[in-house]
Specification:
- The protein has about 120 residues and is an alpha+beta fold.
- The chain has one domain: Umud Fragment, subunit A.
- It has a 7-stranded antiparallel sheet with strand order 1-2-7-3-4-5-6.
Length: about 120
């Protein structure tokens, strides 16, 4: 009976940990070359979903939900670097574009998480 209990408990613990890990991280494919040299086109970016807007600072790379996206083939998740942190919003920019017209202002509630690996 102890072996059955241990097997069932181990299986439930493993499934619970897998679900928790799946709900904590997200993988986004970067399709743009605008984040060069840090993130190459076609590379996967691991996003930590628990880092939404509390501890973000200038220079962090974040994933966000854009207000629009152009085609069905593009990802509905954007990846950019934080240029400036304001009270309720973040100014995001690309790596390659130094022009201010490429910057966007995103509310902190639209931030999905912080990029960990790319």
């Amino acid at each position: 009976m102890k072996r059955v209990f241990a097997a069932v408990f181990s299986a439930l613990l493993g499934v619970s940990l897998a679900i928790m890990l799946h709900c904590t991280f997200m993988i986004v494919k970067n399709e743009s070359s605008m984040m060069l040299p840090d993130i190459e086109p076609g590379s996967d970016v691991v996003i930590y979903l628990r880092e939404k807007g509390e501890n973000l600072k200038k220079g962090d790379i974040v994933a966000y939900t854009p207000t629009y996206f152009t085609t069905e083939d593009t990802s509905p998740v954007g990846v950019r670097r934080i240029k400036e942190v304001k009270a309720d919003t973040l100014i995001l920019s690309y790596e390659m574009c130094t022009a201010d017209d490429s910057d966007i202002e995103v509310p902190k509630e639209d931030i999905l998480g912080k990029a960990l690996l790319f």
